[in-house]
């Protein structure tokens, strides 16, 4: 009888220990769940930041192509545009805000274009907090994340090819070197640009040679409908 009472006494003393151990394990599980929940919110914020930065850089890349195309058509300088610079103010950060919103975040800061290399740095804040957990304060805790996207030129300008035709020495042609006072076929200047047609200036612009990722590319100002896509001129990627 005495031994039986001792076993019951031991069991009664061990029961609170079991309760404490189970409670501790349960709290640990809930704490790990809170950490996982916070990590998921953080990952969502980083995804939104990555998407926003890439959107800004891609929009800027499209604007570079448009500016490059217009510069060639107008005969103005395009060297800086080919290097990813020279646009001035841009609306690329508006694209960043839109894409961040699509991913459940708000842009709190957008820098760009930052030069050398040309890039956009975007910081976002998630709209939804981590939520209520066993860890105090998480119900109002939002995740913040930053991402940087770089615009890298794929092409470099090639020097123009030297002329290959023989110089006109004035001794051949349809009277091009002889002035008989009658105008002839080559002496009369009717102001129409040569063949009696309209001189629109397009034929005066030589082709532009580019070297893009090791391949030669020729842009003909007279056929800008064949102008390369933005992705062929510039690459966009996230910075490490």
Summarize the structure.
By secondary structure, this protein is α+β, with helices and mostly antiparallel strands. It has helices at residues 2-74, 79-82, 92-102, 230-233; strands at 105-114, 119-126, 144-153, 155-157, 208-212, 215-219, 234-238.
Helix fraction? 25-40%
Low-pLDDT stretches are 169-178, 191-199
Strand order, main sheet: write it out.
1-2-3-7
Q: Beta fraction of the residues?
A: 15-25%
Description:
This protein has 240 residues and is α+β, with helices and mostly antiparallel strands. It contains 4 helices and 7 strands, in the order αααββββββαβ. Strand 5 (208-212) and strand 6 (215-219) form a beta hairpin. The longest helix has 73 residues, at 2-74. The model is unreliable at 169-178 and 191-199 (pLDDT under 50).
SSE layout and pairing:
Blueprint: H1 2-74, H2 79-82, H3 92-102, E1 105-114, E2 119-126, E3 144-153, E4 155-157, E5 208-212, E6 215-219, H4 230-233, E7 234-238
Antiparallel strand pairs: 1-2, 2-3, 3-7, 4-5, 5-6
Helix pairs in contact: 1-3
